[in-house]
Every structure is written in structure tokens, then in C-alpha cells.
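Deviation from plan, reported transparently: pyridoxal-5'-phosphate complex.
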Amino acid sequence: MNDTITLTRAPALDVSAIRAEFPILAQTVRGKKLVFLDSAASAQKPRAVIDAMKSAMETQYANVHRGLHWMSERTTDAYEAARAKVANLLNAPSPEQIVFTKNTTEAINLVAHAFSALLKPGQAVLISEMEHHANLIPWQMLRDRAGVPLRIAKITDAGELDMNSLESHLQSGDIGLVAITHMSNVLGTYTPAERIARLAHEHGARVLFDGSQAAVHRAVDVQAIGADFYVFTGHKLYGPTGIGVLYAKRDLLEAMPPFLGGGEMIGTVTYERATWAEIPHKFEAGTPPILEAIGLGAAIDFVQSIGFDAIAAHEAALTDHAIATLSTIPGLTIIGRAQDRGGVISFTMQNAHPHDIATLLDRAGIAVRAGHHCAEPLMRRLNLSGTARASFAIYSTHEEIDALATTLERIRSLFG
Ligand SMILES: *Cc1c(COP(=O)(O)O)cnc(C)c1O
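Because the crystal trials were delayed, the predicted structure below was used instead.
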């Protein structure tokens, strides 16, 4: 019976135990305790990921799918097990709907090439004003290569997706694909993915979500969302670099032509023609990122062992604390005031260039990002040349946010 389960809140997360799993966090930089507030650019790696990759290299390594020998079979099993873990993470109906890529950027480029073959003449792609360049440039290139129009839905001044703008674009009737971020890497804004997918489908469009940020902080259910495509990148989810994920509905994967050609993705080959392998292999040309997939699988086990309820609660508390603390600093402006937001906080300070802020914070051992955050058109929309950005992860603490705030106070006194 469930009568022993009385918790109404997520169990508190044991941050010091989690921090102990990340060897790099024990380091000092410039003689100071490292305060790493740049996890939205890339997250640090837990021992479980480091060990899984090391152990694979030491004990179970060969190329996948090709060898008829013991090592190749073991490695193939580990690689395919990682695919199943990703399918489980996203609640995908089947591991066959998970394609491994190099990163989010490659996953979106794959869709821009392969899905364009399914667009009807005149159909357009709709993105938003708060996209990362990874979800802009591939569509610009598609426009220039194949004449597929690119439309831009607006955001509000609070930094939320303007649903009226999205809907009026959809009502024009010629949108074939909506490609939108699930969480902004600049504003921290979550977009209402289910609503966007429903609207897109009502108007006959397919929908892609860029989950590079969202998939790190919340449980994602691609079936509940109704996503046609969902992409994320391994290195932000505590996994290694060099691996990304494309989830897609089966009918799309079956119907789309391959993106890259070569080994692994073929059925039979003559000089005249070739046939394609079954999905997902059709989209995985060449030797895949085997060790990186194993590392990503370990990262998924790691976050799932903590649980997204606890992760989301911890990060929401950090975000509330950061907004409350930073808001009291005179001359500091937090950029983006979305209702539904995560632990990515962009800010500017009067009279101080974001790069100077980041450099001065670095002297105190505090790592933040400064610049346009791969979203130049968004900066222009906000009338900014750049921002400084602090971002949080499962290992971030309230003390680190206090250290950030104290140092920013000192920086403010320098700039007056
Ligand atoms: C980081 C990021 C990307 C790009 O990820 P890569 O690993 O560089 O391909 C795309 N979109 C968003 C929202 C991101 O935060």
C-alpha cells in the first residue's frame, strides 16, 4: 500500500553529496574556491560518467555493429543500451526513434536537410526571436539553398514567447515546421511546449523543440508534449562532448532521406545505387560516438538516480534566491522576467560592460558567461550588445549565489 508515502514535496537534494561526485568542483582557481556558474554553456562531469568512459576503454571496446567477435558485440550492446536510456529519458515510444548526432547543432542541421525533402513547395519554417544560432542558421541556410521561407515569431518584453504572434503566423497556413526552443539559454524562459505542438498540429505543421537547456532541468516527455522532433546535447546534461540526440516520430524517420552518407547507414551498395539501413542507423553515418554514448548513458543514470523532481525543486530554489538577491543590487537589471523560467539568469549593470563584469568575477574565482550567448538577433531585439549570465546546475549552491552577489556589489562600487 502507499500509505507510507506522505511526501507532498520533492525530497531535498543533498548538494554536498552531489558535489562530491564532481571531482573538478574541488579545485581552486586563481587561489580561490571555484564557483562555477556557467553550466548552461557546458556542465561539469560526475565521476560516474568519467568512470564509465574509462572503464569502456579499459575493458570493453571495439567498433560497433560490424564485428562478429566478443568485443564488438559487448560494445554494440553498450552503445545500444545508451540509446535505450535516452529513449527512457524522453519517454520515446522506441529506441529506434533516437538518433545519435554530434550535438544539438548537428541534430538541427540533420532535420533542416532531411525534413526539407518532406516540405511542400512554398511551405515555411517558423522559429522565434529567442533562438540560439543553432536553431537559426540551419534554417537560414535552407532558405538560401532551397528557397524555404523563414518566419520569426515575436517574444514579449518580459521575454516570453508571444503566442499571438505564433498563432498568426500559423494562421497564414503555409508553415510546414515550427522550430522553437523549449528553454531559452539567455532568458531562462520555458516555452509552453504542449500548447505550441497542439497549435502547430491544428494548422498542419510539424514541430521541433530545441531541448538543449530544458532536458537538463526537467523531465521531458516527448509523447505528452506531442513533439515531432526533440533535440538535445550531451555535454549540458553532465555527459561528454561529441554527442547529441535527435528524437523523431517514426513516420518522419521512415520518410526522410539520410543526411550524411557513408558506412553504417547503408543496406546494400553498388556503384549505381545504395539502399539505406533501418532507422535509426540510416541517420548515423560512419563510426558513431561510441564512448560518448556510453558516457551519456551514465549521465542519464546519474540524473535519474537523483530524480527530476528533486533537481527541479533545487534549481527553482536557487533561481528564486538569485533573483531576490541580485534584484537588490542598484544598477543591476535582470534580463527576462518570464513567469515560467529556469536557472539561467542574464543581467546587465549600469556603466559596466558584460565582459568586464565577467573578468572581474573571474578574479574572484567565479565563472560566468558574457556576450551575446549565440543569440545575436535576440540581443538586438532587447537593444543590448550582450549580457553577463549566471547559470545553475544540480551542484550549485545558495552560498555560490551569495558569493556572486557580494562580488557584484564590489564591482558596482568600481563602476559607480
Ligand atoms: C547550447 C545550446 C545549443 C547548441 O548546443 P551544441 O552542443 O553547441 O550544439 C542550442 N540551443 C540551445 C538553447 C543551447 O543552449
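The radius of gyration is 22 Å. We consider this an acceptable substitute for the interim report.
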